[in-house]
C-alpha cells in the first residue's frame, strides 16, 4: 500500500498553517496534491476541535489506520453469520480528498450561538467548530458568515437567527447546509454565474422551533433579506422542528427565497437536489459507487436477456438489449441517472414523492426519460406488484437507508430472480443481516467492497454483488436413525408457505444423503429462529413427539419489552379457532438490557404463538413482535438496532432419547441478527454476561448423565464427560463436543446474582 503526502489544506476560521511532509506527517497547510490511484495518504489531519468535537472520531489515527478500523467493522459484522464465512472483505476504497469533502452538514445551534456538533462528553453540549476540517470550502464559508450574523443579527433577519434557548426564547435550533455543483448548460448555471472551475453553490435550511417561529410571511421576508448576506447561497428554506421529535429535521420545509432546487452534478449526470433530500456525503466517492455499479452490470454482458420466442434459436442468435435494471431506494435518482447514462434501461422506486418527481424531471431534462421510469411508493409493495406481473430484470440495485431492506422486500426482490443483485449499504450490521437472509433466498456474494464515503468518521459504505446460488443446507446439530435436529434461520417457515419463497424443509433436501422429506416433530414460527426436530419416518415422529411431550422441554431465549419480574409463570387459556386450551409459560429474567428484559422462556405445551401471546398478556411483549408487540418500541429497535423480527430463539432442546433413555441436551447458538441487535443496544456487556451464564447456546448435542430434575435443589454442575462416556452412554451417533468436561447449567437455576451492567441509554420509546 503506497503512502502519499498530505492531501488537503484547511479552510474556515481559526486554522493554523504548518509545514506539510512529503510522505506523511501532520497536515494543516494549504497545498493539495491529487493522490495516485490506490494511494493511501499517511498524513495525520490536525484539527483544533478534535479533542472536544465528536464529529470525526477516527481523526487521531493516520488514514491507513482509519481504513483498517473501517474494514474491521465490516469484517466483524459479517462474522456474526456462519453463512457469510467465506465472504472476502477487500481493502477499503480510499477517499480523495479526506478533508474539505463534506457537501451536506446538519449543524446544531447552541443558545450561545455556537454552531457545531455535540461533544464527546455524551452530554448535549454543542462544540463550536469554526475550523472544521471536513466541510467543503463553500459550506465552511457560509457557516463562518452565519456565525458572525448570529453574534450580532441585523433586525431584518432576527426571525431566522436568534438561537433557540428553552428557557429564554429564540427560534433557531439547527442548520442544514447542502452544497450543489451546478451542471453546465442548465438555466441556473448561467443565472447565478457559475463557472466550470467553480460550480459550487449552497442551499441553506434554517431549522426552527415550530411554536416559536414567526408567520410564514415574516419568515419569507427574513429569507429574502438574509440570502444576499450569505456567500454563494442560491436558496433559503425553513424547516420546523416539533417539540419532542428526536430527529433534527421535521417533516415540513418551506422555501423562503431563491431556488427551490438545483441541478447537482455527480460524475457525468446531474440529479435535482432539494432542501433536505438525500445526498451522499462525498461527491467523488458517490461517483465511484456509480462506476462500480456500471462495472458489475457490464459483467452481465454475456448473459443478456433472451427475447421471448428467440430462446430456442440458441445463444449465438440471441438478440441483446440494453440491460434492464431495477434501482430500489432511488432517492432523487443519482444512481438511476448514472446507470441510464451508461446505456441501461432503469426502473427506479422511491417512496419520497418529491425526490421521485425530481428524478423524473432530471431524466427528462437530460434526454434520459426513454431509459428511466420512476415509480413512487414502498419498495416491498412495488416489487411485489412487479413479481405479480412477471416483470424481468437483468440486475437489481438496492441502496436502502441504515435500517436495511425489510424482510418482505427481501422476499419480493428474490422472487424477481434477477441474475445480479447489487447491495449498496451504509450500515455493515444491517447489510450482514440482509445478506444472511438473501443466502437462504438463493443469492450470495463472494466479496464485500467497502468504500470510505465519510472520511475521519467510523461510517463505512459497502458494496456487495450477489449472484443466484442455491440456498445452503441447514446446519445439522444432531442426527441419528430416527431424527435430525437442524437450525432454522429467521424469516423462514419450516414447511413451504405461499408467502415465503423457501423453507427449512426445502433446504433440508440439500443435506448430503438426504432422500426423503422429513416430518416436523414440533413447529416453529417463521419469525422465530433456532432448533427444529425433524423425523425420518412417521413412526420416529410419533416416538420423538411423545418423548418431547413427556420428558422434553423446549427452551427459548427471548427479549421482552420493559423489566419483567425476576421470574414467573403465565397461565392463560389460549384460543385456537373455536377451541380454548389451557397453557402455561414459565420465564426467568437473565438480564436487563437498555430497560428491556432478556428472558429464558419455557412453554409447557406448544400452542400457536404461545410465548408471544403470553408475554404480551402480562404487558411485556416480545421485542420486534409485529403481531402482539408494541409498535413504537419495535420501530425504534428496527431503526436503531436493526431488529426486524421477534426476538425469540429456540436455543435448547432437552429430551430423553426414546430408545436408549439417555438424557440429551441439544443446543443452537443465538443467531447473528439477535446478537447484533443486542450488541448495538447495550454494547458487548450483556452478550458477555449471557455467555458467562451459558445462556447463548453452543451448537452442540451432548448426552448428560444427570439432569436438573434428578436433584432437588440443583445448581450448575460440571458434568464429567469422559471419552468412554461419550461412546458408551448415548446412542452412537450423538456427536461429542470434544472437551473432557462441560458445564451444563441447569435452566431452572436462578442466576445467583443478576448483575445489571447494562447501561440505560435513554432509548426507551
Ligand atoms: C440511502 S438513500 C439512497 C438514495 C439514492 N440511491 C442515492 O444514491 O442518492 C435511501 C432512499 O430510500 C428511500 N426509502 C426509504 N424507505 C423506502 C421504502 N420503503 N420504499 C421506497 N423508498 C424508500 C428514502 O426516501 C431515500 O431516498
Automatic annotation (TrEMBL):
S-adenosyl-L-methionine binds at residues 280, 329, 350, 399. Keywords: Methyltransferase, S-adenosyl-L-methionine, Transferase. This is RNA methyltransferase. Residues 1-12 have a biased composition (Gly residues). The active site is at residue 426. Residues 735-744 have a biased composition (Low complexity). Its EC number is 2.1.1.-. One of its GO terms (biological process) is pseudouridine synthesis.
Amino acid at each position: 500500500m503506497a503512502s502519499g503526502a498530505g492531501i488537503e489544506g484547511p479552510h474556515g476560521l481559526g486554522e493554523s498553517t504548518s509545514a506539510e511532509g512529503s510522505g506523511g506527517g501532520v497536515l494543516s497547510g494549504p497545498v493539495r496534491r491529487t493522490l495516485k490511484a490506490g494511494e493511501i495518504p499517511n498524513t495525520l489531519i490536525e484539527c483544533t476541535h478534535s479533542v472536544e468535537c465528536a464529529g470525526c472520531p477516527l481523526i487521531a489515527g493516520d488514514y491507513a489506520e482509519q481504513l483498517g478500523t473501517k474494514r474491521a467493522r465490516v469484517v466483524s459484522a459479517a462474522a456474526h453469520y456462519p453463512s457469510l464465512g467465506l465472504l472476502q472483505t477487500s481493502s477499503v476504497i480510499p477517499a480523495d480528498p479526506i478533508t474539505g469533502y463534506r457537501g451536506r452538514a446538519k449543524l446544531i445551534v447552541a443558545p450561545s450561538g455556537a454552531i457545531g456538533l455535540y461533544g464527546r462528553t455524551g452530554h448535549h453540549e454543542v462544540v463550536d467548530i469554526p475550523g472544521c476540517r471536513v466541510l467543503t470550502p463553500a459550506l465552511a464559508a457560509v457557516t463562518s458568515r452565519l456565525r458572525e450574523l448570529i453574534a450580532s443579527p441585523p433586525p431584518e433577519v432576527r426571525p431566522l437567527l436568534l438561537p433557540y434557548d428553552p428557557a429564554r426564547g429564540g427560534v433557531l435550533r439547527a442548520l442544514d447546509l447542502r452544497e450543489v455543483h451546478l451542471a453546465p448548460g442548465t438555466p441556473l448555471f448561467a443565472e447565478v454565474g457559475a463557472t466550470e472551475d467553480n460550480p459550487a453553490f449552497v442551499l441553506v435550511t434554517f431549522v426552527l422551533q415550530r411554536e416559536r417561529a414567526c408567520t410564514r410571511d415574516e419568515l419569507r421576508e427574513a429569507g429574502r433579506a438574509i440570502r444576499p448576506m450569505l456567500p454563494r447561497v442560491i436558496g433559503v428554506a425553513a424547516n420546523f422542528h416539533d417539540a419532542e421529535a428526536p430527529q433534527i429535521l421535521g417533516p415540513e420545509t418551506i422555501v423562503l427565497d431563491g431556488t427551490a432546487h438545483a441541478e447537482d452534478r455527480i460524475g457525468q449526470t446531474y440529479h435535482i437536489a432539494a432542501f433536505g433530500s438525500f445526498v451522499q456525503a462525498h461527491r467523488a466517492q458517490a461517483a465511484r459507487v456509480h462506476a462500480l455499479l456500471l462495472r458489475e452490470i457490464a459483467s452481465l454482458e454475456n448473459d443478456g436477456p433472451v427475447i421471448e420466442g428467440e430462446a430456442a434459436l440458441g445463444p449465438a442468435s440471441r438478440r441483446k438489449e440494453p440491460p434492464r435494471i431495477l434501482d430500489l431506494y432511488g432517492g432523487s435518482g443519482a444512481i438511476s441517472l448514472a446507470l441510464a447514462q451508461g446505456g441501461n434501461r432503469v426502473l427506479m422506486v422511491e417512496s419520497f414523492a418529491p425526490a421521485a418527481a425530481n428524478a423524473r424531471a432530471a431524466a427528462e431534462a437530460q434526454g434520459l426519460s426513454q431509459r428511466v421510469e420512476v415509480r413512487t411508493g414502498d419498495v416491498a409493495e412495488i416489487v411485489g406488484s412487479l413479481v405479480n406481473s412477471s416483470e424481468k430484470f437483468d440486475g437489481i440495485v438496492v441502496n436502502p437507508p441504515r435500517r436495511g431492506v425489510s424482510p418482505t422486500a427481501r422476499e419480493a426482490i428474490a422472487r424477481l430472480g434477477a441474475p445480479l443483485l447489487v447491495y449498496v449499504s451504509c450500515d455493515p450490521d444491517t447489510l450482514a443481516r440482509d445478506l444472511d437472509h438473501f443466502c437462504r433466498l438463493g443469492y450470495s456474494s463472494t466479496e464485500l467492497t467497502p468504500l470510505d464515503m465519510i472520511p475521519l468518521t467510523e461510517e463505512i459504505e459497502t458494496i456487495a454483488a450477489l449472484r443466484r446460488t442455491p440456498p445452503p443446507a441447514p446446519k445439522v446439530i444432531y442426527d441419528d436413525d430416527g431424527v435430525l435436529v437442524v437450525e432454522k434461520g429467521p424469516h423462514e417457515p419450516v414447511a413451504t408457505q405461499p408467502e415465503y419463497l423457501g423453507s427449512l424443509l426445502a433446504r433440508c433436501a440439500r443435506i448430503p444423503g438426504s432422500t426423503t422429506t422429513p416430518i416436523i416433530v414440533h413447529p416453529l414460527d417463521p419469525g422465530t429462529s433456532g432448533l427444529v426436530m425433524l423425523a425420518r419416518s412417521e413412526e420416529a415422529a410419533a416416538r420423538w413427539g411423545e418423548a418431547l411431550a413427556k420428558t422434553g422441554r423446549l427452551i427459548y431465549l427471548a427479549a421482552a419489552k420493559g423489566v419483567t419480574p425476576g421470574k414467573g409463570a403465565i397461565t392463560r387459556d389460549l384460543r385456537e379457532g373455536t377451541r380454548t386450551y389451557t397453557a402455561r409459560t414459565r420465564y426467568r429474567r437473565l438480564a436487563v438490557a437498555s430497560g428491556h428484559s432478556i428472558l429464558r422462556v419455557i412453554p409447557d405445551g406448544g400452542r400457536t404463538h404461545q410465548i408471544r401471546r403470553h408475554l404480551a398478556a402480562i404487558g411485556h411483549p416480545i421485542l420486534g413482535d409485529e403481531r402482539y408487540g408494541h409498535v413504537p418500541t419495535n420501530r425504534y429497535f428496527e431503526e436503531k438496532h436493526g431488529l426486524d423480527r421477534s426476538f425469540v430463539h429456540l436455543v435448547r432442546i432437552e429430551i430423553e432419547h426414546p430408545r436408549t433413555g439417555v438424557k440429551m441436551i441439544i443446543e443452537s447458538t443465538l443467531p447473528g441478527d439477535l446478537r447484533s441487535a443486542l450488541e448495538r443496544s447495550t454494547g458487548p456487556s450483556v452478550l458477555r454476561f449471557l455467555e458467562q451464564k451459558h445462556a447463548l447456546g453452543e451448537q452442540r448435542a451432548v448426552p448428560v448423565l444427570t439432569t436438573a430434575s434428578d436433584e432437588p435443589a440443583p445448581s450448575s454442575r460440571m458434568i464429567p464427560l469422559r471419552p468412554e462416556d461419550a461412546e458408551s452412554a448415548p446412542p452412537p451417533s450423538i456427536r461429542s463436543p470434544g472437551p473432557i468436561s462441560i458445564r451444563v447449567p441447569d435452566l431452572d437455576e436462578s442466576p445467583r446474582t443478576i448483575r445489571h451492567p447494562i447501561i440505560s441509554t435513554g432509548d426507551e420509546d
